[in-house]
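Per reviewer request, we include the raw input and output of the structure prediction for the construct analysed in the revised manuscript.
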Amino acid sequence: MIGSEDPTIHDLHRRLADAGHPVDHHEVVDGAFGPDTIRALLAFQAERGLDEHGTVDNATHAALVEAGHRLGDRHLYLHAPMFRGDDVADLQLRLGGLGFDAGRIDGILGPDTTSAITEFQRNVGLAADGIAGPLTVDNLRRLLSRTTGRRPVVQVRELDRLRRGRPDLANQRIAVGEFGGTAALATALTRILRARGAHVLKVDQPDEALQASITNDFDADIYLGLRLENHSQCRTDYFATKGFHSEGGLRLARRCAEALDRALRIHLEAATHETVRTMCTGRQLPILRQTRMPAVLCTLAPASTVVLATAEIADNLAGAITHWLADPTGDHTITPE
Protein backbone atom coordinates (compact mmCIF):
# COMPACT_ATOMS: atom_id res chain seq x y z
CA MET A 1 0.00 0.00 0.00
CA ILE A 2 1.25 3.51 -0.80
CA GLY A 3 2.92 5.10 2.20
CA SER A 4 3.26 1.88 4.20
CA GLU A 5 6.50 0.96 5.99
CA ASP A 6 7.86 -2.55 6.35
CA PRO A 7 11.35 -4.01 6.84
CA THR A 8 10.89 -6.06 3.67
CA ILE A 9 10.53 -2.88 1.62
CA HIS A 10 14.26 -2.22 1.99
CA ASP A 11 14.94 -5.64 0.47
CA LEU A 12 12.51 -4.86 -2.36
CA HIS A 13 14.26 -1.56 -3.09
CA ARG A 14 17.65 -3.30 -3.13
CA ARG A 15 16.47 -6.01 -5.50
CA LEU A 16 14.85 -3.47 -7.84
CA ALA A 17 18.08 -1.45 -7.92
CA ASP A 18 20.15 -4.57 -8.61
CA ALA A 19 17.79 -5.37 -11.49
CA GLY A 20 18.36 -1.92 -13.01
CA HIS A 21 15.25 -0.17 -11.66
CA PRO A 22 16.36 2.04 -8.73
CA VAL A 23 13.74 3.73 -6.58
CA ASP A 24 13.74 7.41 -5.61
CA HIS A 25 16.19 8.12 -2.76
CA HIS A 26 13.52 9.52 -0.42
CA GLU A 27 11.42 6.35 -0.59
CA VAL A 28 14.53 4.22 -0.05
CA VAL A 29 15.55 6.19 3.06
CA ASP A 30 11.99 6.10 4.46
CA GLY A 31 11.47 2.45 3.59
CA ALA A 32 8.23 3.47 1.94
CA PHE A 33 6.22 1.66 -0.71
CA GLY A 34 5.33 4.83 -2.56
CA PRO A 35 4.64 6.01 -6.11
CA ASP A 36 8.23 5.60 -7.28
CA THR A 37 8.41 2.06 -5.95
CA ILE A 38 5.28 1.28 -7.94
CA ARG A 39 6.83 2.89 -11.03
CA ALA A 40 9.97 0.76 -10.65
CA LEU A 41 7.91 -2.39 -10.09
CA LEU A 42 5.83 -1.73 -13.20
CA ALA A 43 9.00 -1.21 -15.24
CA PHE A 44 10.50 -4.44 -13.88
CA GLN A 45 7.31 -6.40 -14.58
CA ALA A 46 7.14 -5.04 -18.13
CA GLU A 47 10.79 -5.91 -18.76
CA ARG A 48 10.28 -9.45 -17.42
CA GLY A 49 7.09 -10.14 -19.34
CA LEU A 50 4.98 -10.43 -16.19
CA ASP A 51 1.51 -9.07 -15.42
CA GLU A 52 1.92 -5.34 -14.85
CA HIS A 53 0.04 -4.39 -11.68
CA GLY A 54 2.69 -2.69 -9.52
CA THR A 55 2.35 -5.12 -6.61
CA VAL A 56 4.67 -7.88 -5.40
CA ASP A 57 2.83 -11.12 -6.12
CA ASN A 58 4.50 -14.55 -6.06
CA ALA A 59 5.62 -14.36 -9.71
CA THR A 60 7.15 -10.90 -9.26
CA HIS A 61 8.93 -11.84 -6.04
CA ALA A 62 10.37 -14.97 -7.66
CA ALA A 63 11.54 -12.94 -10.66
CA LEU A 64 13.23 -10.37 -8.38
CA VAL A 65 15.10 -13.13 -6.56
CA GLU A 66 16.12 -14.80 -9.82
CA ALA A 67 17.32 -11.49 -11.26
CA GLY A 68 19.94 -11.30 -8.51
CA HIS A 69 21.85 -14.38 -9.73
CA ARG A 70 24.77 -13.82 -12.14
CA LEU A 71 26.52 -16.59 -14.03
CA GLY A 72 29.59 -17.64 -12.04
CA ASP A 73 28.24 -16.57 -8.65
CA ARG A 74 27.32 -20.14 -7.69
CA HIS A 75 27.83 -23.72 -8.84
CA LEU A 76 24.93 -24.87 -11.03
CA TYR A 77 23.92 -28.51 -11.24
CA LEU A 78 20.84 -30.75 -11.17
CA HIS A 79 19.26 -30.27 -7.78
CA ALA A 80 15.89 -30.71 -6.08
CA PRO A 81 14.33 -28.20 -6.11
CA MET A 82 15.79 -27.11 -9.44
CA PHE A 83 18.01 -24.03 -9.55
CA ARG A 84 16.25 -21.02 -11.08
CA GLY A 85 17.69 -17.67 -12.01
CA ASP A 86 19.18 -15.32 -14.56
CA ASP A 87 22.45 -17.23 -14.23
CA VAL A 88 20.73 -20.43 -15.38
CA ALA A 89 19.14 -18.62 -18.34
CA ASP A 90 22.51 -17.12 -19.28
CA LEU A 91 24.10 -20.58 -19.07
CA GLN A 92 21.35 -22.10 -21.25
CA LEU A 93 21.66 -19.31 -23.80
CA ARG A 94 25.46 -19.65 -24.06
CA LEU A 95 25.28 -23.45 -24.37
CA GLY A 96 22.54 -23.18 -27.00
CA GLY A 97 24.52 -20.61 -28.96
CA LEU A 98 27.40 -23.09 -29.16
CA GLY A 99 25.13 -25.87 -30.42
CA PHE A 100 24.52 -27.72 -27.14
CA ASP A 101 20.79 -28.27 -26.57
CA ALA A 102 20.12 -27.12 -23.01
CA GLY A 103 16.37 -27.15 -23.54
CA ARG A 104 14.18 -24.08 -23.41
CA ILE A 105 15.89 -20.91 -22.24
CA ASP A 106 13.63 -20.70 -19.21
CA GLY A 107 16.10 -20.16 -16.36
CA ILE A 108 15.20 -23.54 -14.81
CA LEU A 109 18.06 -26.04 -14.58
CA GLY A 110 16.63 -29.45 -15.44
CA PRO A 111 17.94 -32.67 -17.03
CA ASP A 112 18.30 -31.13 -20.52
CA THR A 113 20.56 -28.37 -19.22
CA THR A 114 22.59 -30.84 -17.19
CA SER A 115 23.11 -33.03 -20.28
CA ALA A 116 24.23 -29.99 -22.26
CA ILE A 117 26.71 -29.00 -19.53
CA THR A 118 28.16 -32.53 -19.53
CA GLU A 119 28.41 -32.63 -23.33
CA PHE A 120 30.12 -29.25 -23.38
CA GLN A 121 32.61 -30.36 -20.71
CA ARG A 122 33.52 -33.46 -22.74
CA ASN A 123 34.10 -31.32 -25.82
CA VAL A 124 36.51 -28.95 -24.08
CA GLY A 125 38.36 -31.61 -22.09
CA LEU A 126 36.95 -30.90 -18.64
CA ALA A 127 35.71 -33.45 -16.10
CA ALA A 128 32.20 -34.30 -17.34
CA ASP A 129 30.43 -33.95 -13.99
CA GLY A 130 27.45 -31.85 -15.14
CA ILE A 131 28.37 -29.05 -12.73
CA ALA A 132 28.76 -25.54 -14.10
CA GLY A 133 31.55 -24.36 -11.82
CA PRO A 134 34.28 -21.73 -12.43
CA LEU A 135 36.25 -23.76 -15.02
CA THR A 136 33.15 -24.58 -17.06
CA VAL A 137 31.92 -20.99 -16.95
CA ASP A 138 35.37 -19.64 -17.88
CA ASN A 139 35.50 -21.95 -20.90
CA LEU A 140 32.02 -20.88 -21.96
CA ARG A 141 33.00 -17.24 -21.76
CA ARG A 142 36.25 -17.85 -23.65
CA LEU A 143 34.50 -19.65 -26.51
CA LEU A 144 31.50 -17.40 -26.73
CA SER A 145 31.44 -14.08 -24.94
CA ARG A 146 27.82 -13.48 -25.86
CA THR A 147 25.23 -15.47 -27.77
CA THR A 148 23.03 -12.53 -28.74
CA GLY A 149 22.04 -12.73 -32.39
CA ARG A 150 22.63 -16.49 -32.59
CA ARG A 151 19.58 -18.72 -32.60
CA PRO A 152 19.85 -21.33 -29.80
CA VAL A 153 19.87 -24.89 -31.10
CA VAL A 154 16.67 -25.65 -29.14
CA GLN A 155 14.71 -23.33 -31.44
CA VAL A 156 16.02 -25.07 -34.54
CA ARG A 157 15.09 -28.46 -33.10
CA GLU A 158 11.64 -27.24 -32.07
CA LEU A 159 10.95 -26.22 -35.67
CA ASP A 160 12.10 -29.65 -36.86
CA ARG A 161 9.75 -31.37 -34.39
CA LEU A 162 6.86 -29.19 -35.49
CA ARG A 163 7.43 -30.03 -39.14
CA ARG A 164 7.38 -33.76 -38.31
CA GLY A 165 4.25 -33.54 -36.15
CA ARG A 166 0.75 -34.79 -36.96
CA PRO A 167 -1.03 -32.33 -39.31
CA ASP A 168 -4.55 -32.66 -37.85
CA LEU A 169 -6.45 -32.83 -34.56
CA ALA A 170 -6.84 -36.62 -34.51
CA ASN A 171 -5.29 -37.96 -31.29
CA GLN A 172 -3.64 -34.65 -30.41
CA ARG A 173 -3.32 -34.15 -26.65
CA ILE A 174 -4.55 -30.66 -25.80
CA ALA A 175 -4.82 -29.00 -22.39
CA VAL A 176 -7.35 -26.19 -22.10
CA GLY A 177 -6.65 -24.09 -19.00
CA GLU A 178 -9.24 -21.92 -17.29
CA PHE A 179 -8.48 -19.17 -14.78
CA GLY A 180 -11.97 -18.06 -13.81
CA GLY A 181 -14.70 -16.33 -15.78
CA THR A 182 -14.19 -18.46 -18.87
CA ALA A 183 -15.74 -21.78 -17.78
CA ALA A 184 -18.43 -21.70 -20.46
CA LEU A 185 -15.88 -20.90 -23.16
CA ALA A 186 -13.47 -23.62 -21.96
CA THR A 187 -16.30 -26.16 -21.97
CA ALA A 188 -17.43 -25.15 -25.47
CA LEU A 189 -13.88 -25.29 -26.85
CA THR A 190 -13.23 -28.65 -25.19
CA ARG A 191 -16.40 -30.07 -26.71
CA ILE A 192 -15.46 -28.92 -30.24
CA LEU A 193 -11.90 -30.24 -30.02
CA ARG A 194 -13.06 -33.62 -28.72
CA ALA A 195 -15.62 -33.86 -31.50
CA ARG A 196 -12.77 -33.41 -33.97
CA GLY A 197 -10.75 -36.28 -32.50
CA ALA A 198 -8.47 -34.61 -29.95
CA HIS A 199 -7.81 -35.88 -26.44
CA VAL A 200 -8.58 -32.83 -24.29
CA LEU A 201 -7.89 -32.15 -20.62
CA LYS A 202 -9.76 -29.16 -19.16
CA VAL A 203 -7.76 -27.70 -16.27
CA ASP A 204 -9.65 -25.49 -13.83
CA GLN A 205 -6.89 -24.37 -11.45
CA PRO A 206 -6.13 -20.73 -10.53
CA ASP A 207 -2.50 -21.45 -9.62
CA GLU A 208 -0.37 -21.18 -12.76
CA ALA A 209 2.40 -23.46 -11.51
CA LEU A 210 -0.13 -26.19 -10.68
CA GLN A 211 -1.78 -25.79 -14.07
CA ALA A 212 1.61 -26.19 -15.73
CA SER A 213 2.39 -29.29 -13.65
CA ILE A 214 -0.96 -30.91 -14.48
CA THR A 215 -0.51 -30.10 -18.16
CA ASN A 216 3.01 -31.54 -18.22
CA ASP A 217 1.83 -34.71 -16.45
CA PHE A 218 -0.88 -35.06 -19.12
CA ASP A 219 1.95 -34.96 -21.69
CA ALA A 220 0.02 -32.40 -23.74
CA ASP A 221 1.07 -31.51 -27.28
CA ILE A 222 -0.55 -28.07 -26.98
CA TYR A 223 -1.62 -25.83 -24.10
CA LEU A 224 -4.24 -23.12 -24.55
CA GLY A 225 -5.10 -21.00 -21.51
CA LEU A 226 -8.13 -18.73 -21.14
CA ARG A 227 -8.62 -15.85 -18.73
CA LEU A 228 -11.02 -12.92 -18.55
CA GLU A 229 -9.92 -9.41 -17.56
CA ASN A 230 -11.40 -5.94 -17.37
CA HIS A 231 -9.40 -4.60 -20.30
CA SER A 232 -10.55 -3.10 -23.56
CA GLN A 233 -8.35 -5.33 -25.71
CA CYS A 234 -7.67 -9.06 -26.07
CA ARG A 235 -4.15 -10.45 -26.13
CA THR A 236 -2.48 -13.77 -26.87
CA ASP A 237 0.82 -14.50 -25.12
CA TYR A 238 3.53 -17.09 -25.81
CA PHE A 239 6.76 -17.84 -23.95
CA ALA A 240 9.71 -15.59 -24.73
CA THR A 241 12.72 -14.35 -22.84
CA LYS A 242 15.91 -12.50 -23.75
CA GLY A 243 17.47 -14.24 -26.74
CA PHE A 244 14.81 -16.96 -27.00
CA HIS A 245 11.17 -17.56 -27.89
CA SER A 246 9.03 -20.64 -28.40
CA GLU A 247 8.72 -21.13 -32.15
CA GLY A 248 5.50 -23.12 -31.88
CA GLY A 249 4.04 -20.84 -29.23
CA LEU A 250 4.67 -17.74 -31.33
CA ARG A 251 3.00 -19.13 -34.42
CA LEU A 252 0.04 -20.57 -32.54
CA ALA A 253 -0.41 -17.28 -30.66
CA ARG A 254 -0.56 -15.42 -33.98
CA ARG A 255 -3.23 -17.83 -35.23
CA CYS A 256 -5.24 -17.39 -32.03
CA ALA A 257 -4.99 -13.61 -32.25
CA GLU A 258 -6.43 -13.68 -35.76
CA ALA A 259 -9.17 -16.03 -34.57
CA LEU A 260 -10.18 -13.71 -31.72
CA ASP A 261 -10.28 -10.74 -34.08
CA ARG A 262 -12.67 -12.60 -36.38
CA ALA A 263 -14.86 -13.77 -33.52
CA LEU A 264 -15.16 -10.38 -31.82
CA ARG A 265 -15.12 -8.04 -34.81
CA ILE A 266 -18.88 -7.98 -35.43
CA HIS A 267 -19.76 -7.48 -31.76
CA LEU A 268 -17.12 -4.88 -30.91
CA GLU A 269 -17.06 -2.82 -34.07
CA ALA A 270 -20.84 -2.50 -34.02
CA ALA A 271 -20.74 -1.24 -30.43
CA THR A 272 -17.60 0.93 -30.44
CA HIS A 273 -16.94 1.61 -34.14
CA GLU A 274 -13.29 0.82 -33.44
CA THR A 275 -11.06 -1.65 -35.27
CA VAL A 276 -10.47 -4.88 -33.38
CA ARG A 277 -6.84 -5.94 -33.03
CA THR A 278 -5.67 -8.56 -30.56
CA MET A 279 -2.14 -8.02 -29.24
CA CYS A 280 0.33 -10.91 -29.55
CA THR A 281 3.26 -10.75 -27.13
CA GLY A 282 6.13 -12.88 -25.86
CA ARG A 283 6.06 -13.05 -22.05
CA GLN A 284 7.45 -14.99 -19.09
CA LEU A 285 4.27 -15.74 -17.16
CA PRO A 286 4.62 -18.92 -15.04
CA ILE A 287 2.06 -20.88 -17.08
CA LEU A 288 4.03 -20.17 -20.28
CA ARG A 289 7.45 -20.63 -18.73
CA GLN A 290 6.76 -23.92 -16.96
CA THR A 291 4.77 -25.78 -19.63
CA ARG A 292 6.94 -27.92 -21.89
CA MET A 293 4.94 -27.71 -25.12
CA PRO A 294 3.81 -24.89 -27.45
CA ALA A 295 1.65 -22.83 -25.09
CA VAL A 296 -0.59 -19.80 -25.55
CA LEU A 297 -2.50 -17.79 -22.96
CA CYS A 298 -5.52 -15.92 -24.34
CA THR A 299 -6.58 -12.93 -22.24
CA LEU A 300 -10.13 -12.04 -23.25
CA ALA A 301 -11.82 -8.64 -22.99
CA PRO A 302 -14.17 -6.90 -22.56
CA ALA A 303 -16.18 -9.35 -20.48
CA SER A 304 -19.62 -8.33 -21.76
CA THR A 305 -18.61 -8.93 -25.37
CA VAL A 306 -16.83 -12.21 -24.60
CA VAL A 307 -20.02 -13.61 -23.02
CA LEU A 308 -22.04 -12.72 -26.11
CA ALA A 309 -19.43 -14.17 -28.47
CA THR A 310 -18.63 -17.38 -26.56
CA ALA A 311 -19.75 -19.73 -29.36
CA GLU A 312 -17.87 -17.77 -32.05
CA ILE A 313 -14.70 -17.58 -29.94
CA ALA A 314 -14.71 -21.33 -29.23
CA ASP A 315 -15.27 -22.19 -32.88
CA ASN A 316 -12.59 -19.77 -34.10
CA LEU A 317 -9.99 -20.91 -31.55
CA ALA A 318 -10.60 -24.54 -32.54
CA GLY A 319 -10.10 -23.48 -36.14
CA ALA A 320 -6.88 -21.66 -35.24
CA ILE A 321 -5.44 -24.81 -33.65
CA THR A 322 -6.52 -26.87 -36.67
CA HIS A 323 -4.90 -24.47 -39.16
CA TRP A 324 -1.73 -24.22 -37.09
CA LEU A 325 -1.37 -27.99 -36.97
CA ALA A 326 -1.67 -28.14 -40.76
CA ASP A 327 1.20 -25.63 -41.10
CA PRO A 328 2.89 -25.19 -37.69
CA THR A 329 6.05 -23.49 -38.94
CA GLY A 330 4.71 -21.35 -41.77
CA ASP A 331 6.52 -20.41 -44.94
CA HIS A 332 7.18 -16.80 -43.99
CA THR A 333 9.49 -15.33 -41.40
CA ILE A 334 7.78 -14.25 -38.21
CA THR A 335 9.39 -11.68 -35.99
CA PRO A 336 8.37 -11.89 -32.32
CA GLU A 337 6.99 -8.70 -30.76
